[in-house]
Q: What sequence folds into this?
C-alpha cells in the first residue's frame, strides 16, 4: 500500500507518499527501462540496472553489500534489511529511506 501511495495520484493531485518516502514516477515516465521503479525488501537488479543506478560502490554500499549476492549473469540480489521489511519498524523504514537517498535514479527521481 505504501508503494501505491508513492506512485498513485490523489484527488488533490500528485502522489502523496506516506512515512516520509519519496514520490516515484510511473514506469513509462522513467528515462530508461533498466532503472527500477521502486525499492522493496528483496531487490533484483540486472547487470544493466545495477550499472544504471551506480551499484555497487564499495565506499557507499558496504551495508548493502554485506547482504547482497551476485548472480551468475552479473546481476545482484539485494535485501535492504536482514529480516523482511516491516515499515512499522523504524530501523527498517530508515533503511528504506537511506536506500532511496543513495539511489535517486530509482523511481525516476534523479534530475538526469
A:
Amino acid at each position: 500500500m505504501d508503494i501505491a501511495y508513492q506512485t498513485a495520484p490523489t484527488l488533490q493531485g500528485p502522489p502523496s507518499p506516506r512515512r516520509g518516502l519519496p514520490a516515484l514516477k510511473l514506469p513509462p515516465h522513467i528515462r530508461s527501462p533498466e532503472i527500477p521503479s521502486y525499492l522493496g525488501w528483496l531487490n533484483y537488479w540486472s547487470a544493466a540496472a545495477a550499472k544504471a543506478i551506480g551499484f555497487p560502490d564499495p565506499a557507499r554500499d558496504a551495508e548493502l553489500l554485506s547482504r547482497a549476492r551476485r548472480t551468475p549473469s552479473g546481476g545482484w540480489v539485494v535485501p535492504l534489511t536482514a529480516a523482511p521489511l516491516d515499515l512499522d519498524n523504524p530501523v527498517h523504514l530508515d533503511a528504506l529511506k537511506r536506500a532511496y537517498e543513495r539511489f535517486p535514479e530509482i523511481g525516476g527521481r534523479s534530475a538526469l
Notes: The first helix runs from residue 2 to 7.
